[in-house]
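Protein modeling request. Please complete all fields; requests missing the sequence field cannot be processed.
Requester role: graduate student
Desired output: 3D structure, token encoding
Chains: 1
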Amino acid sequence: MRVTANDGVDLHVEVHGDQAGEPVLLIHGWPDDCGLWRHQVPALSAAGYRVITPDLRGFGRSGRPDEVASYKLASAVADMGSVLDAVGVPAAHVAGHDWGSAVAWATAMFLPDRVRTLTAISVPHLGVPDTPRQREMAWYTLFFQFAGVAEAQLRHEDWASLRELAAGYKDIDRAIANLSRPGALTPTLNWYRANMAPRMPGPRRELPPVTAPAMGVWSDGDRYLDGARMRASGDLVKGPWRYEEIAGAGHWIPLDAPDALSALLLDWLRSPS
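Delivered output (273 residues):
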């Protein structure tokens, strides 16, 4: 189905499973689309849940606004509200991976009445400070700030730099096929430019509390995110908190450990405490 966001951006949304079941909103990250969840959707649907999987703005079959500012997290949070409105869901269990995890955290903060439970996969609470290790691991986010240069380098020699950056990513060929479409790459990089551009030092904006029951999931093979920050996220959650670590998986947990993640989600959704 197509959902029109408040600012007019067209969003591609898929709805699976029992229409009367408890709703679960699954939000992908970079450089994916809603197909990231192809292993979790059947497991959740078979358990009676109604599963909602949008393509984030700028990704997949959703619209791609031109302005970098259109990719700020605030716009994505509003998009999630529009998606829930369109499918007639007052509140849902919300889970996200990578940028989708950041959107999920922000949705729990700024639309608390719409979030029954939160599952943050790989990316920690937005208020957790960087560690020295995290700054080393996230070097590529600085490279992505260079508009035009980053695009050219990623495409060079059949996407050799992206293949190296995402070594071990099971969907790399599918992602490259999507990013190779005219005008498809820059909008995905604009997520980094809108939300991670270097800023002047000073006090950070105080974030609203996360009051929903929250689970953080990290994998010990993640080359991009420091697990210490996910573990520290519990200190910033007012509701019940649970931390789970998946051994032997890389960053893309939904693809690397699909059965383990599905089992965790089902256990969490049945008893979020």
